[in-house]
Request: fold
Amino acid sequence: MAAAAAAAVGGQQPSQPELPAPGLALDKAATAAHLKAALSRPDNRAGAEELQALLERVLSAERPLAAAAGGEDAAAAGGGGGPGAAEEEALEWCKCLLAGGGGYDEFCAAVRAYDPAALCGLVWTANFVAYRCRTCGISPCMSLCAECFHQGDHTGHDFNMFRSQAGGACDCGDSNVMRESGFCKRHQIKSSSNIPCVPKDLLMMSEFVLPRFIFCLIQYLREGYNEPAADGPSEKDLNKVLQLLEPQISFLEDLTKMGGAMRSVLTQVLTNQQNYKDLTSGLGENACVKKSHEKYLIALKSSGLTYPEDKLVYGVQEPSAGTSSLAVQGFVGATGTLGQVDSSDEDDQDGSQGLGKRKRVKLSSGTKDQSIMDVLKHKSFLEELLFWTIKYEFPQKMVTFLLNMLPDQEYKVAFTKTFVQHYAFIMKTLKKSHESDTMSNRIVHISVQLFSNEELARQVTEECQLLDIMVTVLLYMMESCLIKSELQDEENSLHVVVNCGEALLKNNTYWPLVSDFINILSHQSVAKRFLEDHGLLVTWMNFVSFFQGMNLNKRELNEHVEFESQTYYAAFAAELEACAQPMWGLLSHCKVRETQEYTRNVVRYCLEALQDWFDAINFVDEPAPNQVTFHLPLHRYYAMFLSKAVKCQELDLDSVLPDQEMLMKLMIHPLQIQASLAEIHSNMWVRNGLQIKGQAMTYVQSHFCNSMIDPDIYLLQVCASRLDPDYFISSVFERFKVVDLLTMASQHQNTVLDAEHERSMLEGALTFLVILLSLRLHLGMSDDEILRAEMVAQLCMNDRTHSSLLDLIPENPNPKSGIIPGSYSFESVLSAVADFKAPVFEPGGSMQQGMYTPKAEVWDQEFDPVMVILRTVYRRDVQSAMDRYTAFLKQSGKFPGNPWPPYKKRTSLHPSYKGLMRLLHCKTLHIVLFTLLYKILMDHQNLSEHVLCMVLYLIELGLENSAEEESDEEASVGGPERCHDSWFPGSNLVSNMRHFINYVRVRVPETAPEVKRDSPASTSSDNLGSLQNSGTAQVFSLVAERRKKFQEIINRSSSEANQVVRPKTSSKWSAPGSAPQLTTAILEIKESILSLLIKLHHKLSGKQNSYYPPWLDDIEILIQPEIPKYSHGDGITAVERILLKAASQSRMNKRIIEEICRKVTPPVPPKKVTAAEKKTLDKEERRQKARERQQKLLAEFASRQKSFMETAMDVDSPENDIPMEITTAEPQVSEAVYDCVICGQSGPSSEDRPTGLVVLLQASSVLGQCRDNVEPKKLPISEEEQIYPWDTCAAVHDVRLSLLQRYFKDSSCLLAVSIGWEGGVYVQTCGHTLHIDCHKSYMESLRNDQVLQGFSVDKGEFTCPLCRQFANSVLPCYPGSNVENNPWQRPSNKSIQDLIKEVEELQGRPGAFPVSISSETNLSKEMESVMKDIKNTTQKKYRDYSKTPGSPDNDFLFMYSVARTNLELELIHRGGNLCSGGASTAGKRSCLNQLFHVLALHMRLYSIDSEYNPWRKLTQLEEMNPQLGYEERQPEVPILYHDVTSLLLIQILMMPQPLRKDHFTCIVKVLFTLLYTQALAALSVKCSEEDRSAWKHAGALKKSTCDAEKSYEVLLSFVISELFKGKLYHEEGTQECAMVNPISWSPESMEKCLQDFCLPFLRITSLLQHHLFGEDLPSCQEEEEFSVLASCLGLLPTFYQTEHPFISASCLDWPVPAFDIITQWCFEIKSFTERHAEQGKALLIQESKWKLPHLLQLPENYNTIFQYYHRKTCSVCTKVPKDPAVCLVCGTFVCLKGLCCKQQSYCECVLHSQNCGAGTGIFLLINASVIIIIRGHRFCLWGSVYLDAHGEEDRDLRRGKPLYICKERYKVLEQQWISHTFDHINKRWGPHYNGL
Reply:
């Protein structure tokens, strides 16, 4: 007890040493056990006190640390083992006490046993990979951890993998959020029933210890928090405190992971109010607790919150410093009536940036008292913990702890309530935060777990006023950034809008709150409460009105705006997220009749808000000019609720519509936007910069269109259907500023529009009318029809991938709904309208994705240009759709010419909107149509085919939608006298069409042609801006008409018209003296719409009297007009269709049409050309001529290019190239002639001006990747699978070389093998040649060219000047004769012995060159420099194999190996054999001939010592000298261990060039004897003891026959007996025999074995012969390849007949007696094998059968790769890489860009590409599913070989759909790797600066 007492004293005096009394420290476990026992007694008060004292002691031991961290009384932190030691100690104590004396781990296990694990609840943080299954989810936010997902069954579901942005938690087992069928195996069992009860004593200690522990944590947080200085809390201090607390919070987190039993204890502790009160009240005598309580109160106060105890009432109070006084006063003042409070700006410190006096804020009575914003009272640990979590800006650890507790139901409810209680405080902290992004994510991480659950959301809404809190908080948040609106009436406007430039909007800081709001509105029960609560609706409309009219654009008229603000995106995002998405959320609950009341509420308050808005901006009837805002959320709310009301709730539209005056106001701003769109597209806003175009595009873009343009158009449709049609039509033309254009005069003045904009504005106005009248999105189409129309429109513009279609088709933009409306119907509609085009490969290597393209019947019947125009973001897409439509019609033979946009019958209108069609039957529109037809017929300026098209479209629409048959059939055709009062008698289009108009009075400029003449019979016409009539001619003014109508409507609706209409001084009437005076002229017209149409027909067809009424032949046409729903054709067909419809609707029209046709039409009057027009005509002509010139040039260029392309090659596919001869051979010329592609001259290559081939040198390790089995290795996808490289070709060759170097003389070893299997230099050319001096100047010009190239000129890189293929060196062409007519080629009849002598002599003559090296010529210099390039291409380690560094043998070896590498690679490109013969063009574009010259020149500088020259050993018998002392020096490599192909290259390169054919054949024959002997030796080693002795005897018998030297049996037997002497076979024990597969050797199998051994040599030799002497390679079957190649090489005697089976030995031609020379060769091995039989045998068996190289084989499904690698740790740095990658050549796992694995400034991928591929690396990026290629110092993104079910890549796994391997793509990748064409095919290269 004494110890405990000591502890209690210590608790009050923290300055004592920290560690508890020694006795305690020694034995924590004993103390814990003792306390546990004491507490278990029935009377446990004593035990409890003892424990409290101990805890007080132990836990306050940490406190000074906090003080130290806070930097206050650091002195107090006296003793203790440094910072952290005390905490460790305290945690140890806690663990001991919890376990009650037992082991902590056992305790954990015990508690886990009682876990009723019904929920998973795994919490993750950002960047975690999780899954979402829409099929199983009830809430759209549902997510699963990978483990639960893979253990559940989701086959065939609509799921995707995603990277969590904000963090989340696994919902498996929570049936509120997902369907039970999707639970994984672990969480399917409802296990609560069979889990035993938790024994009382297990968790007893926890209940005592944890409250103290949590209190200690809270004290810690209180201590550590210092109220920040003016500049905000220093992140540093907060983070320091949090770091110190890391172990404590982790400890709590571990407790939550112990399962349900422990969680319920924690819940009790966290929510128990008594505990909290006792410990933290700050009463009592404990000084520390007091102090900490004070700090807590200070923190509360500084947060602008009050602690309720301080105030007796929640009354008016002094605003504390931090709060916006505006808000305080506002909310107080607002509790009564609807008051307007002026904010005083003296102490308005809330960052309103000096807006102070300028703003007035109107607050509605809906706001409840201000306790929501400013009062917080904490009653439990949980509440204060959350308070500090917010204060510290949501540290990740704390968030995870709080979320880990959520599976406990009781906690979940308590925590949700606490969270809501702190909601306002969260908002304030968020606004001040510097890291608002991270903080936003963490807030949503929490809230999405709470609010996605409908039951919980409903409970909190009812008990905690959740909706009030959210709306108030949002309103309050936005109020901090309001400015005065400048819309309409700048001086007197009372409206305030948000300022989009503020950080709050620009950085989307409001996002978490809005997202929560959208989330809770998705629950029906919550949304209903919202829609029923009038106060809330008023507040919400108030909130929405802050966005009404934001981001106002004013058109710049003079100079370009200096600074283009990019705030518009913030504005669009804000309207979409803060206004539109909540709107869609609410709409989703207004689907049935019973919800009518909700709609009425919303519409009512919406209209009220709109009326307030109109008042606030002082709006009467005319919008302010040159202003536009794209943001009218109130209009859109109103429109969307109207649409829903009619579509789903069967409401009567008129019951929710306001009066006419309000409708007129409502239509103005949306109409203004439509007109501004046309202005922006006509480039009238160009001085506002690009951003205004951006706004116009965003407004119609797929994510925004159905919350922006669609509601706007719908609202205009509603207004049009209810307003006077004449008023509406004239408003449209006035808004579009084209009123003045609508005159019949040939000239006019437009005072509001420049001439160059007139045409596009007129097109805009007509197009808008067409869209308005034909769009049915909200006027009666069903959802499926809408989806289909949207899809067809998108597919018609371009073929689309599945994902881009999903993206482009506007969903109800509440992405929370997760699913596109009926995503099941999405797939079915897609398959109905489109065909899938599988991904294909173009030879250019550009990879196509799987695309959907419209079916033929869609083009035929459904293509709808109106929908396309509505949905295009870029105008070019409309053109693209028309081009595709035209192509379809041509292809299907439906229409040959240039078709017009087809006319499509519309779905029928919903009865509520029938009034819309009155627009088509109003005089104003008819006058406009008549005028335009007349103007087009008379060829007036500024009219286009597009205008005519739209005019005809409108006429046709009018005929389709005309009223019943006319009754006034007998009315006489109106004479001139009928026309006194107005233009047209009625308003029906059908009858107005035939009405003749005789005279029109127009106002024209005095200069106009109409004025000059006397007779009124001139052609001229009306001006819609002035049609007063005197007697005969009548004038009509659109503007005047509109004013009149407006006046009528206003007078009808209100008696106070006088105060509404303000006199306008409009700029429409030009000031006197500006421009020429207008005078009046009267024109004689004498036309009707019908007659104009018929004349147009003549004009369009270019023939007189071209129109012949079809019903004259077949009267049936009129009775049942077979007018298809859909019609293709051009203007002529359109006119015919209209006339037919007009005739079939009225007999009068039919008669009049016939009459008009009977009169022969006079020719159209020739056009009078004015000077101005002449000028434009000249301009046109000049342009036309320029265009023709250009075409001609282009055509010429194209043909040049074509012929070049025919001679050149198609870089991209090595298979099907058109051969290109490097040389232009003509039989009589002996010298080769080359064309220089730079200077264009042709000529031979000479010593002083050499020509060179453009080549690309690259190091390659492809050869080294060959293995001996056909199946490629698989990529490892589990820990067991590994790839070991020791069976690769490179490894085997390395082993062989090092083995030789161990036992033999170094210089001789370096002649016995080839290198270059890894890091060999491959030389390839595009076949173009250039003068080397031209090339140098070309390089200079590239160096001075500052353009960013994809290559580095300093490294000698360039692109071929002709074909642009990548290259980095020039290979000089050796002057001399042409290959084809080489005089040396003629066969000579010398004996082989003579030839052998000649060869030896020639090799002995050093530098016997036509070019003497001594005289430095340009050519020899170039040869040297190219040799340097070749050496520098590969790394030093791939060149130096000699033991003595820098020995010349190294260079010698390297040089002939370059030749070997190129021959071997060419063989691989030909598929590993030569069966296809000379057909392959790889040879045609080969530069081996030139390469050989360069190599030979350099090799002859090193002469081989004649006594070591292998040629001697091959062709002469030497006297054997057995006494040769093997001891004193390392011997030469025995000739049988030499690599024959290497010998061949050495022999040939040592000869003077050009080589004679018979010398070449001689060398091949001699080497073949050696090769054959090696084959026999290898065979003898492979077979078993018995076989050997059998063969030995069998052959010995035949030795005396005549052609024994050509019989393999004899030779084999001889080799065996010779090798027998060297103890080669003796070592074999019994086990050795067992290993070798017991083949029964038949003569056939032995023959096959020998042929296989020799074939590689024959192939390389044939290729060499083909290149040196230009002979074609014969093609053959695979089985006869050996014999064909042998005869082609001259090994076979020509008379050889191939009837009986072919014997390879018959090719032998021994230069000296066979048995003698074999004896000599075998003797060389003898002394070596006597000592090292094993190695001797290994060196004899050369693996010669390499299969083609392959990349690793990848698994079918990408997920297998992803799951294994994305969590795999790197073997170098043992961390999980941020960007893991895996090499597809060897399977190595690397960190991309990881600094952890960097070595000498090279990151790991670059390093690996050098080690594995000599500079070429192919990596699969695990997290992105794409492949990157590293080539030297450059890299490129290649693309992906994994595609989803729709044939698309998913780069960065953004969509997260399952991906499957695309074998064709992988083949293409492998092909490019093998053929070394990455550089040529992939275009987008960039430098990687070793940083990958």
